[in-house]
């Protein structure tokens, strides 16, 4: 089949290397499925497809334990007593979605068993087994055991009912509302497969800037159809709840969370949803943020709003994901402080099935932000991470940026909230404060483009996000390598340079867009390309000048105790590090400090020279990416090679645009020459 990217990382390429292929074959004959649930059927199909393609011979499914070297899979409840006894130790170590892949001997014959406590655990095991072969790892004496470290692993689609996608750059929404519920696009199945293959188990299919219509019977019927497709893949559906829905579609006069009719309306609505979708996940809510309605419209607070919805879904086991992305024009000395001020005082007041969804940084999905100060600061409230996989501020689907590197940096950051080593990863996996629910959300970069994500390499961000949601402690380099091997090639001549290119790409985008802690200087509204000069939008915190504060004296946002004191929202150890220019990491310097153009950086350069050199470095690095890709043409099919080549050329052109625009603009204030090595704009 054509290599157009449709098959994502599930290429299952034929293993050309004879020795390797024969080694696999000598350990794999047929498949034996125990149990026949829909999920087991899906697992069987995937195993047959993957193994047959990779081994180049049809792998059959058989009904009994004849022969040897079978790949046997099924849940614990389908295993016989002897086998359960044999696997007792392993079964004790996995959680409900975990799995075991192990070589075992039954009646003197060698087999491979894939098992877990639930159907979906087994499915995850099957995908893991396929990945081991896709990445050409040995299955001799195979012995793998794994469980997700986070309960809720979500994609958030910012998809509108007219199929436009807010901040979506890969075509229109996958959800064909017009033809649902009766027409089931086969793409829904492939979407669910791809998610299951990396362990994503939830999808909020509608925009956080929500339309109440999704909660009407006409739409719920369509949502139900999608939920039915996703269910065998362990993928639960969630919906965004517009807070004013009781007015808009319920005919009530108010949406006040204290009003008995409003409370009842949500209870009845929830019942109606669960009647159609018994495993409905719950609601995702953006309230009192950027003009969205919420409890504050009625003089109530976030706790009142979240708890009312939580009570409605609680009898059905549902949850409420209440977003902390709030900022208002009334309190705009520093937007970075607002979420913390609005939420932290309420720690411990939310119901058990509420989880607060916090963006990775305190502003908004910048190429680099210090970790959000809320992480670790609410020991009694479950907090979930919200990452943005779609590249709103990072060059849309045109620029190659490998985001797991960014995600990893956030997870590794130390909050010091329970002493040294209190990483964000431990806040998110619940281990730091023993949280009852844990979750990670990623704003999807998926659309109906043939290759799903617009840019072939941005599939790696969907993949890598899923892997890190499964386990926030994984290494982004290992993930990149898995992805390259499953998507393109197992040849190390290709893998090594491409892996390096991917791993550097995040720092590269920081260099040519927002070096040294600069942020939010993208052009306004669409956020594509530079716009540091924008200064006249109605709300101060929408203007890039608000963030860089460049003037004759210097540049940067003073968030220390001499400025907005946002650093005070971190643990004292962290605040000390950021407050002091000697200890503040230079990558975050201008996020926390306003410094003179002559300020001396650690390498001896002045701040002005340092900024200019970083912009140039970013451009040089993209040039290297272009060369690296060109040199590897023979390892890649034509279609994907050409697409990536054209996109990298655009990225190169636009990195120069960023450099020239920002340096020319800032130069008006610094009134200094560009240092040697920085190309002069024409
Ligand atoms: C950003 C983005 C909006 C989005 C918002 C959110 O501000 O530009 O399009 O609605 O984040 O996360 O709610």
Automatic annotation (TrEMBL):
EC number(s) given by UniProt: 3.2.1.131
Taxonomic superkingdom: Bacteria
Every Alpha glucuronidase N-terminal domain range: 8-129
Active-site residues per Swiss-Prot or TrEMBL entry: 290, 364, 392
Biological processes per GO annotation: glucuronoxylan catabolic process
Catalytically driven reaction(s): Hydrolysis of (1->2)-alpha-D-(4-O-methyl)glucuronosyl links in the main chain of hardwood xylans
GO MF: alpha-glucuronidase activity; xylan alpha-1,2-glucuronosidase activity
Residues in Glycosyl hydrolase family 67 catalytic domain copies: 133-452
Keyword annotations: Carbohydrate metabolism, Glycosidase, Hydrolase, Polysaccharide degradation, Xylan degradation
Ranges where the Glycosyl hydrolase family 67 C-terminal domain occurs: 453-678
Hydrolase as UniProt keyword: yes
GO cellular component: extracellular region
Signal peptide region: none
Subunit structure: Homodimer.
Family label: Belongs to the glycosyl hydrolase 67 family.
Protein name (record): Xylan alpha-1,2-glucuronidase
Organism: Lutibacter flavus
């Amino acid at each position: 089949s054509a290599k157009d990217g449709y098959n994502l990382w599930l290429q299952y390429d034929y293993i050309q290397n004879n020795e390797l292929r024969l080694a696999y074959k000598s350990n794999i004959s047929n498949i034996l499925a125990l149990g026949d649930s829909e999920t087991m059927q899906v697992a069987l199909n995937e195993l047959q497809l993957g193994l047959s393609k990779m081994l180049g011979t049809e792998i059959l499914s058989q009904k009994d334990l004849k022969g040897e070297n079978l790949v046997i899979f099924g849940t614990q409840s389908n295993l016989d007593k002897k086998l359960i006894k044999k696997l007792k130790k392993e079964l004790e170590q996995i959680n409900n979605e975990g799995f075991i892949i192990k070589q075992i001997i039954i009646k003197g014959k060698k087999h491979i068993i894939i098992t877990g406590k639930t159907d979906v655990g087994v499915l995850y095991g099957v995908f893991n087994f396929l990945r081991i072969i896709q990445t050409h790892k040995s299955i001799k004496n195979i012995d793998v055991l794994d469980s997700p470290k986070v309960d809720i692993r979500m994609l958030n689609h910012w998809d509108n009912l007219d199929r436009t996608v807010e901040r979506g750059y890969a075509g229109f929404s996958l959800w064909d509302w017009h033809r649902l519920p009766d027409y089931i696009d086969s793409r829904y199945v492939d979407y669910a497969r791809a998610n299951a293959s990396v362990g994503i188990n939830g999808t909020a299919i509608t925009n956080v800037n929500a339309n109440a219509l999704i909660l009407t019977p006409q739409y719920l019927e369509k949502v139900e159809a999608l939920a039915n497709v996703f269910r065998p893949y362990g993928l639960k559906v969630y919906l965004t709840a517009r807070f004013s829905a009781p007015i808009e579609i319920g005919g009530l006069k108010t949406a006040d969370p204290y009003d008995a009719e409003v409370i009842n309306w949500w209870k009845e609505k929830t019942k109606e949803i669960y009647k159609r979708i018994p495993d409905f996940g719950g609601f995702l809510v953006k309230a009192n943020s950027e003009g969205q309605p919420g409890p504050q419209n009625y003089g109530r607070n976030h706790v009142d709003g979240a708890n009312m919805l939580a009570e409605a879904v609680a009898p059905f086991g549902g949850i409420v994901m209440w977003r902390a992305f709030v900022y208002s024009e009334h309190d705009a000395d520093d937007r970075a402080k607002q979420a913390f001020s609005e939420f932290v005082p309420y720690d411990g007041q939310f119901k058990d099935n509420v989880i607060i969804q916090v963006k990775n940084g305190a502003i908004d999905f910048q190429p680099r932000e210090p970790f959000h100060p809320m992480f670790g600061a609410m020991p009694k409230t479950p907090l979930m991470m919200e990452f943005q996989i779609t590249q709103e501020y990072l060059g849309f689907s045109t620029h190659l940026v490998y985001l797991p590197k960014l995600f990893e940096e956030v997870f590794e950051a130390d909050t010091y909230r329970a002493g040294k080593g209190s990483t964000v990863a431990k806040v998110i996996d619940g281990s730091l404060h023993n949280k009852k629910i844990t979750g990670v959300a990623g704003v999807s970069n998926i659309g109906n483009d043939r290759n799903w994500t617009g840019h072939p390499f941005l599939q790696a961000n969907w993949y890598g996000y899923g892997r890190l949601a499964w386990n926030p402690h994984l290494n982004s380099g290992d993930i990149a390598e898995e992805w390259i091997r499953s998507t393109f090639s197992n040849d190390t001549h290709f893998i090594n340079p491409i892996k390096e290119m991917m791993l550097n790409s995040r720092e590269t985008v920081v260099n040519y867009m927002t070096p040294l802690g600069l942020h939010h200087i993208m052009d306004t509204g669409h956020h594509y390309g530079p716009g540091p000069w924008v200064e006249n939008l109605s709300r101060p915190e929408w203007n890039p000048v608000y963030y860089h504060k460049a003037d004759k004296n210097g540049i940067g946002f003073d968030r220390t105790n001499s400025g907005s004191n946002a650093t005070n929202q971190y643990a004292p150890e962290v605040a000390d590090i950021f407050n002091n220019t000697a200890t503040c990491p230079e990558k975050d310097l201008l996020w926390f400090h306003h410094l003179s153009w002559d300020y001396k950086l650690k390498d001896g350069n002045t701040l002005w020279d340092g900024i200019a050199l970083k912009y140039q470095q970013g451009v040089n690095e993209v040039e290297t990416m272009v060369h690296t890709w060109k040199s590897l043409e023979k390892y890649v099919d034509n279609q994907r090679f050409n697409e990536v080549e054209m996109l990298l050329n655009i990225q190169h052109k636009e990195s120069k645009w960023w450099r020239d625009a920002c340096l020319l603009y800032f130069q008006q204030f610094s009134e200094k020459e560009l240092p040697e090595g920085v190309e002069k704009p024409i």
